[in-house]
Amino acid sequence: MSKTFLVTGGAGFIGSAVVRELIRETDHRVVNVDKLTYAGNLESLAAVEDDPRYAFRQADICDAEAMARLFAETQPDVVMHLAAESHVDRSIDGPAAFIETNVVGTYVLLEAARQYWKGLKESDAQKAADFRFHHISTDEVYGDLHGADDLFTETTSYAPSSPYSASKASSDHLVRAWQRTYGLPTLVTNCSNNYGPYHFPEKLIPLTILNAVAGKPLPVYGDGKQVRDWLFVEDHARALIHVAATGEIGETYNIGGHNEKPNIEVVETICALLETLAPAKPEGVTHYRDLITFVTDRPGHDLRYAIDAGKIERELGWTPRETFDSGMRRTVQWFLDNEQWWRRVQSGKYQGERLGESA
Length: 359
Ligand code: NAD
What we know:
12 helices
């Protein structure tokens, strides 16, 4: 049966992948609510913007009146909450926006959802019983791992390190409290690092690809030995839609790609792929890997993240389609093929303003 999905942050990296997947692969309707911060880019939704099942509303999730109106007007069956401030470095430079959007915004959205759901229980008991509030979070809430074989499970204690991960941890606690206290039918997922098409160029993988093709240095924090577990963004989008449809109310599911890689290996993999996919190098560059430059480490930098995704595989039957090699090849090729998209982000034209360089 066709449902209405209210997706917050649908103009962001992962949100836009969820919206594209919902429109392409299902017959559901999608309302995308996004404030359009620097990270929101409607050009990532060009493929679906004319679809009659897609609608966009520009609004701030911290605006309680706007959220109440949105629920009343759109009558969603499922909320997928991805809107967030998401960049760790930005959270170190300016934590306030992270507390505002990730903590206060999640609270405002939960309250709007709860009032709407309370009303539904009186007007449409079946729709109220089927309603889901799915909160999308990160594995960074667990802090970092020190043992080489340790993995984050759904019961690992929270130990966030950065203002970003602390604000996401707070929002996870709020969502679980709204389920325990008010019975709001919630789901939480915690995912590892995503990569893929439409990734904002300040993040490690797109930054490395774009700096390499421009012949610029490829910055690597510290010794580059920090390990991250990488998941192709379309695999994450499919997992989220699957959890929203089949997850147990009140449960948490970790989502990961079984692709633990030290940052330096990620950068070297991109350099090797570019040798084949973009052999015509910028002037003065003999090998892309010669551009690798080690820079001062980020304060509080987590050493290793690795997800145990056994629960979502066993209980919901989800597994990723892409391997690290296939996903990275698709990603590098996408950036080579979609120069107009990333040039408009780099120049600020996607928002009508100029962004600073971020290396
Ligand atoms: P992103 O920064 O690319 O996108 C965030 C989106 O939220 C943007 O479109 C932005 O305009 C919007 N937004 C920000 N503040 C808002 C507000 N106050 N009101 C309405 N919209 C607002 O982020 P992403 O990488 O797509 O991440 C999406 C979600 O997934 C986040 O909650 C993040 O914590 C989580 N997550 C991300 C990763 C990752 O690797 N990127 C991994 C695990 C979990």
